Structure formats: structure tokens, C-alpha cells
Amino acid sequence: MLEKPEERGLVAKVARHLNINYRTALRWWNHYKETEAIPYRKSEENSGPKSSLTTKHNEYLQSLLDNDPQLFSDDIMESLTEQFEGFTISKSQLNNHLRNHNAHHYQEAII
């Protein structure tokens, strides 16, 4: 439906159909025309909260998951808090981090 909305003047109709703001649909369409790529998570717009995990935490996570990629979130959280004194992280933060930064290790079994 988004292939050629400008030819028919249907950006507003497409926006209503997708239940999004007209300007959002227009921005997405203009981005698509310029790059021929579907816009997805521009870091400056979707930065979200900053991760509490440092480079050392990431390296430790990587080695932990290299040794046992079938670990559950609870086991990973326990191992992190044992390894790094005073470190705390919620299960949702950990799963979000694993999904976004360790995608090659992430599996549904971790959740």
C-alpha cells in the first residue's frame, strides 16, 4: 500500500489506514524515497534509557553465553551479580540488552 502513495495523493489515507500521524507517514515515505530502505529504529529518535551494562559486563556476558548459550535469564542475572559486586539489573533490562546487543547468542529459551 505504501509503494506509490504520492502518485495518487494517498499519504493521508495510508496514514489513517495504519492509524499513524500523517507527518509520520510522510517522513517514512520520504526516507524510503531517499534510501530505498524501510525506516527502523533511528538511534537518535529511539534511544530509550541507557543500559547499565558496561564493556566489562558485555565481555563477561559474551564469555558466559559462549560457554553455555542455553542459560536462562535468572541464571545470567545471578552470575552477573556474583561477578560484579553491587551490580543489579532487572530481567526485562537484561532480556532487552541481550536482544539488542547479543543477538547472535539470544534465543527464546533465555526468556
UniProtKB/TrEMBL annotation:
Domain of life: Eukaryota
Protein name: Uncharacterized protein
